[in-house]
Design brief:
The protein is 73% helix and 0% strand. It is mainly alpha-helical and 119 residues long. Residues 64-115 form the Campylobacter invasion antigen D C-terminal domain. InterPro entries: CiaD_C.
Length: 119
């Protein structure tokens, strides 16, 4: 199951009127799922003293990886906003809690990637 499908399914469950406090385990699993997808960013080459063609290849590869990362982040944020715009948000507190956890996680992932790029 794709990440987008998992997010949409969770949003649909939250917006469904039969959502109760007993189903709080599902959002926590979703937050853990986000963590497993992005917890290990691809390492960037630390040694930049290699020959020119090799470093050009590495920088092109790094650029491609960053583009993929940003496209994935963009897709997840679009799904998040679609869910927040849903008309049937019955349990807004849990929706905001899940959203807050997701955004905190994404900020941590971005911070880790920035630290790797600075090295």
């Amino acid at each position: 199951m794709e990440l987008k499908d998992l997010i949409l399914e969770t949003i649909n469950e939250l917006s469904h009127p039969s959502f109760t406090q007993d189903s709080q385990a599902k959002p926590l699993e979703l937050a853990e799922t986000f963590h497993t997808f992005d917890s290990s960013p691809t390492p960037i080459a630390e040694n930049s003293t290699t020959e020119m063609p090799h470093s050009t290849h590495k920088s092109a590869e790094s650029l491609k990886e960053e583009c993929e990362f940003l496209e994935g982040l963009q897709e997840r944020l679009l799904v998040l906003f679609e869910g927040l715009k849903a008309e049937h948000n019955q349990n807004i507190e849990s929706t905001l809690r899940i959203t807050t956890h997701f955004l905190e996680h994404q900020l941590n992932v971005i911070q880790e990637r920035l630290e790797l790029l600075k090295k």
